Amino acid sequence: MRALPLLLITLLGCTTNPYDQGKPVDDTGDTDVEGDTDTDTDTDTDTDTDADGDTDADSDADSDSDADVDTCPSGYDPVDQNGWSRSYSVVYQGEATTGEQSGIGASSGWGVDGFEYRDMIGGANAFDVDIFVSCEGNEGDGMYVYGWEGSVSYSMMGMPVAMDVTAQDNPARLYLPSESETGNRGSWSYDYTVTVETDSHGKTKQYAIAFAGTYQEIGFESYSLPTGGTYQAYKLTNSYHMSNTALGEEMDGYAEQYWIKGLGLVEETHYDLATSDIYLSRELTNYSGLTPTD
């Protein structure tokens, strides 16, 4: 049973309940995600006109609400782009397989405005989930994972197991700083609890997993893509401790990641520090709908 909480919760980032961190959807505050806050407390429809008759000078392109997300603050994970995909070669729990991430689009399904993308890995131990990310959280501007849900399959004592899974963390995990802070943030720590709900053949279970750890910026390294071209990749490490009291599991883990501006995640490796085993590695093999830059 270890594969489900460890590999999915750690690799996919999980979610948070936005209301627990003081970030409910603002139906009346008229606050733009891009940073400007209208003090007139008007409820913009299409013309952004105050009740007193004057027209705001900000001329922002509101459609129905100033709470709409336009762009995220980091080009190192361009989930705000449409129609993109990234393909990977993967080694997952010792099995060589393939994986893919692809954009879904803007969403507010987890209670805040953000974006969803699909993350899947094939093979005997597989997952196919939709991950929700937002540009706001309790650590300021940056990229936060708020939630994921989808299907999971793995082997337990030689028998295949399949289930639907939904997860939430509290609070959200900052996995990338804002673009302006990238390379200058240094390190940041996190401490959150993930609530996981599984549904297999109509049987529902729920349990909590605690995570605490630290991201550390290593800096920028020259990175050659298999599709051609060499770019400066932003390297991060993530050292963490996982505790699942319900299943009697604890683990110390370590991950290395490389991100390229305009393209996103190009390589990552996850280690179990107790055994030094690599339990997941993936490396970009192809992409579409994205343009890497330095």
- Biggest β-sheet, characterized? 12 strands, antiparallel, barrel
Beta strands, count: 13
CATH class: Mainly Beta
Mean pLDDT: 80
Percent helix: under 10%
How would you describe the overall organization of this protein?
- This protein is mainly beta and 294 residues long.
- The protein has one helix at residues 3-12; strands at 85-92, 95-107, 114-121, 126-134, 142-156, 159-170, 173-177, 187-200, 203-224, 230-244, 249-260, 264-272, 277-288.
- Helix content is 3%, strand content 52%.
- The chain has a twelve-stranded antiparallel beta barrel.
- The radius of gyration is 20 Å and the shape is globular.
- It has one domain (3-19, 69-288): YmcC-like fold, CATH 2.40.360.
- It has one helix and 13 strands.
Annotate the secondary structure layout.
Elements: H1 3-12, E1 85-92, E2 95-107, E3 114-121, E4 126-134, E5 142-156, E6 159-170, E7 173-177, E8 187-200, E9 203-224, E10 230-244, E11 249-260, E12 264-272, E13 277-288
Antiparallel strand pairs: 1-2, 1-13, 2-3, 3-4, 4-5, 5-6, 5-7, 6-8, 8-9, 9-10, 10-11, 11-12, 12-13
Provide the descriptors you would attach to this structure in a database record.
294 residues; mainly beta; YmcC-like fold; twelve-stranded antiparallel barrel; 13 strands
In short:
By secondary structure, the protein is mostly beta strands. The protein contains one helix and 13 strands, in the order αβββββββββββββ.
